[in-house]
Write a structure and sequence with these properties.
7 strands; Alpha-Beta Plaits; five-stranded mixed β-sheet; alpha+beta; flat
Amino acid sequence: MRYSESKDRSAELLRLALGQMGKHEAAFNPISFTLWYEYVGGINPALTAAIDESLKEGKGIDDPAVIALYKKYIAPADEALMAHISGEMERLLASVAQSASHTGSKAGNFGDQLNGLNRALASRDVEQLKPRLTEVMAGTAEMKSSVEALQQKVSISQEEISKLRSDLDRATSEALLCPMTGILNRRGFEKKIESLLSQETADGNSHCLVMLDIDHFKRVNDTHGHLMGDRVLQAVGEILRTSVKNDNHSAARYGGEEFALLLPQTSLDQSIELAEVVRNRTKAIKIRDRTTQEVLSTVTISGGVTAVKPNDDAASLISRADEALYAAKNGGRDRVVSHA
């Protein structure tokens, strides 16, 4: 899910986006609204940088600019990439087919030359044999050159296909990341939890899920503004990303101010320990007065931990982790609770 803002937050972004749209020539349409919604919400850093650069240069955002920015920074990466790969593959295949056709034509001519030589040999006519030998020698050189050209074309095409595959892998990975926090987005989380549930557990281990929620996050937005709220989200995302040391473990932004850790092949105790690391590191986030540097408040986070049970699906596992999270909230926040 690309947009996970609350109703209040999205209403504020709506107001800000409309304000921006009114300053420019582009029409009030869904594409223009999406562009400015992501801009004012800080959802898409690359888009924000591009718009800021245009505004800095005194360029207005008209309809062509809106379309160009949308296609480059918002249009789903997989759709754009598939169109690119499709075109490139057609070009590569057409090029190889042309070379193969040319080589095939040369092969046909060379076959005729060999047949002519064979007939000359059968007739034992020396006068016929000499020109046939010359013709076959020339044909051999030409055939060798054509085959080498085809081999080179295939080799180049293989390199280009390898690059296209890398582009596809990179775009697929980026499509699963939250642009604000740099960790998995909701779509990436859903893919990882399905993968986690499909794995067998090793002896003495289990698969665990940690659900985390920033305490009183609405108060942060209301008191210090949404820009500060976004910075808190980014800081928590960085804490999660750097706290996950195991390559098999994943951190995700589940939605809004809620995050998750997916921990395959990890005991419940180990998962609780990691959740506590995140909780303690989060308390180091301080909201300060820009002028005096006085600490105005400290950020805390609550967590719920559970392990996979037989016959669990994603919904039941998330529900049980959420129950533990709610218990942590109800117990006073800034704590981790497990649900065995």
